[in-house]
Amino acid sequence: MSSTIPPVDRASALSAGPTRVVNFLSTYRELFLNLTLRDLRSKYRRSFLGWMWSLLNPLAYMTIYTIVFAEFLKQIPPVGSPSGIKVYALYLMCGLLPWNFFQAGILTSIGTVIGNAPLIKKTYFPRALLPAASVSSAFVFDLIEMGLLTAILVGFGNYHALEFLPLVLVLMLLVATFSLGLGLALSAINVYFRDIEWFVTILFMAWFFLTPIIYTTSRVSSTTINILKLNPMTDGVFCFRSLLYDGKMFSPLEFGYFAVAAIASLVTGSLIFRKCEPQFAEEL
After folding, report:
1. How far is CA 177 from CA 181, 182, 260, in A?
2. What is d(CA 169, CA 146) in angstroms, rounded to the nearest whole number?
3. Which residues contact 120 (CB under 8 A, 6 or more apart)?
4. Within a domain: 8
């Protein structure tokens, strides 16, 4: 493994700047791809269905939530405008898939530094590639799931979903940015405080219900909606639903807030990771 890692000056690797970032990605693209492929191959290793689980898992969630919320709790989905769709399962999946990607990217990133302790102790390479590879592999699975969802939406007559696919991809990249920023910060802190991994699991349980994914906002007061919108993922989900479920352009304010939050997450996470990185080998 060490033979494939090019030499690097630590100060240069930890410095910022657009030109250096481009050169950095160019220099380490082979290692980054190898780490991503390793994550993809290990995801469903020795499982009978393999990558089929990337489709079966969201379908299982969709079925369970649809039965509980649409049938038992009588959640009525809004009518997509101009798509005309009124299907709770599709309304759910347009928010659930981005959330699953966001959550998976963070939860798989947290343990990447600790899980690669032998490699970190053996040789130097930019440790940020480890959480980045986890987010990248989650992105691949999300692409597969989004492709299936788009095909289903088109089957229901929402051809606008195809029209907005480039913007959906932009939103997915913002989700990846948001997820990577938090993943960098938490994976670094987890080296020093191993409780982080368990705390974040509990945090995501609350965060999930504070994001309007499984319930509609028609029965929620405007005050509560404003509180929920303090959560950037709320606006993120609204943007995805506008493009995919409604078949119309998202709100510029919602997109702007989500984009700013994602970029702020990446900047903050990078700073925390950069601060902690020199001590990783000693702490591990």
Report:
1. 6, 9, 10
2. 10
3. 113, 127, 280, 281, 284
4. no
| pLDDT tens figures, 94-121 | 999 999 999 999 999 999 999 888 888 8
User: Residue 27 burial (CB < 10 Å; 0-12/13-18/19+)?
Assistant: middle
Q: What domain count does the chain have? A: 1
As a whole number of angstroms, the distance between CA 73 and CA 234 comes to 22
C-alpha atoms less than 13 angstroms from C-alpha of 220 in its C-beta half-sphere: 17
In the chain, how many H helices and how many E strands? 15, 0
Beta strands in the chain (DSSP E): none
d(CA 148, CA 156): 13
Residue 54 has pLDDT above 80, yes or no: no
Amino acid at 256: G
CB 189 within 8 A of CB 271: no
In a domain, 14, yes or no: no
Which of these, 166, 125, 94, 97, lies nearest to 31 by C-alpha position? 125
Q: pLDDT at residue 21 above 90?
A: no
Owning domain of residue 79: 28-283
Report the first-to-last Cα separation within the chain, whole angstroms.
Answer: 19
What is the pLDDT, as a whole number, of residue 184? Answer: 94
What's 86's DSSP letter?
-
152 in any annotated domain: yes
**Is the residue at 7 inside a domain?**
no
How many whole angstroms separate alpha carbon 59 and alpha carbon 65? 10
Read off the amino acid at residue 211.
T
pLDDT in tens, 145-196: 899 899 999 998 888 889 999 999 999 999 999 999 999 999 999 999 888 8
Measured between alpha carbons, how far is 47 from 39 in angstroms, rounded to an integer?
15
| Token pair of 144 as six digits | 């597969």
